[in-house]
Amino acid sequence: MRISSASSPLDPAQAWSWIRQIAKAARDGEFEGTFYEGGRRLEVDPDGQWRCSVTVDAEAAQLFSIWLPWSVADTVRAPRVIAQIGQSLDGRIATASGASHYVTGAASLVHLHRLRALVDAVVVGAGTVEADDPQLTVRHVEGDNPLRVVLDPRGRVNPQRGVFHRADAPAWHLIAHGSSVATATAEHVRVVSLEGGEQGIEPAAIIAALAEAGHRRILVEGGGLTISRFLEAGCLDRLHSVVAPMLIGSGRPAITLPEIDTLAQALRPACRHFSLGSDVLFDLDLRQRADEMGTA
Predict the structure, then answer these.
(1) CA 33 from centre of chain
(2) Residue 278 and residue 272: Cα distance in Å, rounded?
(3) Within its chain, how far is the Cα of 102 from the centroid?
(4) Contact 124/151 with Cβ under 8 angstroms?
(5) How far is CA 153 from CA 124, 132, 188, 210, 263, in A?
(6) What is the pLDDT, as a whole number, of residue 7?
(7) pLDDT tens-digit readout, 127-159
(8) Which DSSP string do the residues of 122-188 spell out, in sequence order?
(9) Is 84 helix (H, G, I), strand (E, B) or coil?
(10) Mean pLDDT score, 54-58
């Protein structure tokens, strides 16, 4: 990253507009590493490192640093999948009763909405829809709402949940072969049936179905078990873990993976971190180990 000196700094609103335009161009295979607007130039390497021809203020610079690695990632050869989870310092996403509003703060909510705006589809599990009835929109930022995908292998989600009634964006109700849904669907909802097993529908099958339909940037938003299944299956490229300065003490864990015997077996992905208000974002590149970057 290099920020040049100039008299009129690039502000966060302009930076976010540039990020969205770059992400769209990259998705369409039309971004060649340089973005121009109004005589200003932003050069972006394939790994997201950037250089700007004008001064960039601190908040705008952080937006570039967080989002450009994701925005310029190649989705032509393979779809890209990112997950986000908000948790307490002791690794909880909710109390034992399921209360989770809100573990993380306002800045982290905006971050999540930015992430939704930079993907084609957002996937949530049945438990998250039942517990939180999320809108899965980008109402806190400028951008387009993604396809909303409810992963519900057994067809158990209450048909009165908002995602099935609010036509803010199209939605998939994703069920396993042999399951059914109780009610007729609204015009914006498509029921998609995929092969299921003892553990539900395989993450790779979900990604393949979305990619075939043209949705090649995918966010797995929750809950913890759904994210854990994608992580265990090796189907995540990045993980955004947002940690709040809070101790819940007991409750629902953020990530649950099979037990390991030694720490040598632990996942050690390359990691960057950023402040989001009082929270901390850990941006984990799951396709690169920390020791490959000389940071282990």
Answers:
(1) 23
(2) 17
(3) 18
(4) yes
(5) 12, 18, 20, 16, 34
(6) 58
(7) 999 989 999 999 999 999 999 999 999 999 998
(8) EEEEHHHHHHH------TTSSSPPPEEEEE-TT--S-TTSGGGT-TTS-EEEEEETT---SSPPPTT
(9) strand
(10) 97
Q: Is the peptide bond before 36 cis (omega within 30 degrees of 0)?
A: no
Q: Which residues have C-beta within 8 Å of that of residue 59, sequence separation ≥ 6?
A: 11, 12, 15
Cα–Cα distance measured from residue 40 to residue 26, given in angstroms and rounded to the nearest whole number: 19
The answer to whether 167 and 186 have CB atoms below 8 angstroms apart is: yes
Inter-axis angle of helices 58-71 and 12-27, nearest 10: 10
Whole-number percent of the chain with pLDDT over 70: 95
Half-sphere exposure of 170 (CA within 13 A, CB side): 11
Collapsing DSSP to helix, strand or coil, 229 comes out as helix
Reduced to 3 DSSP states, what percent helix, strand and coil does the chain have, rounded to the nearest 5?
Answer: 25, 30, 45
Structural domains in the chain?
2-71 (no CATH), 80-293 (3.40.430.10)
| Average confidence score pLDDT of the chain | 92
Q: Are strands 171-176 and 147-151 parallel, antiparallel or unpaired?
A: parallel
DSSP classification of residue 261: S
Q: For the chain, what's the residue count?
A: 296
What pTM was computed for the model?
0.93
